[in-house]
Fold this sequence. Notes:
Layout: E1 4-7, H1 17-26, E2 36-39, H2 49-59, E3 63-66, H3 69-76, E4 84-89, E5 107-111, H4 116-127, E6 135-140, H5 142-145, H6 154-166, E7 169-174
Parallel strand pairs: 1-2, 1-3, 3-4, 4-5, 6-7
Helix pairs in contact: 2-3, 4-6
Amino acid sequence: MGKPFLYPLSDPRSGIVRPFADGLRELGYVDGQNVVSLRRGAEGIVGRGADIASALIREGVDVIVVTSALLAKEMTSVTTTVPIVVAASVDFVEMGLAASLARPVNVTGFSNQAAPEIDAKRLQLLKETPSTVGLVAYLSTRADWSTRADWENANGLAIRTAAQNLGLSVILAEHTAVDYASA
């Protein structure tokens, strides 16, 4: 049987844990057969991450999976060697979980908001393709497209600046969350 790992919440049927467990099963990892999961939760109490990480490390976990970047940050005070996977975070660098996206140390995961330089890099890669791209539509909300330079609205500004530097034209293809059918 494999070494234990941590599910992010104590209830394996909860929203984010169920797809994670299903994905593991699809890859051939079955809890109790060839992998052991240790389910812990912080019960929403800030500051419990370090204690949870310490206990899990004593158990010999190979990886820790969490749903909160804040929890991951607390855990990094205890370990820089056990991989910590964050289900969703805003900006790993801004949260202090990584010095840069290229050097994440032991924390990785999924960002539900890319840093503005990532969108600019995407434009640069598009420009480097052998196509004759001149006009790019940017699918975004009006708020992200605004000219304000704070974090919440920096992506549109970064895209427009990068497009100008690359000799591209970019237009807003505005959308809202209600533009999509629910899954």
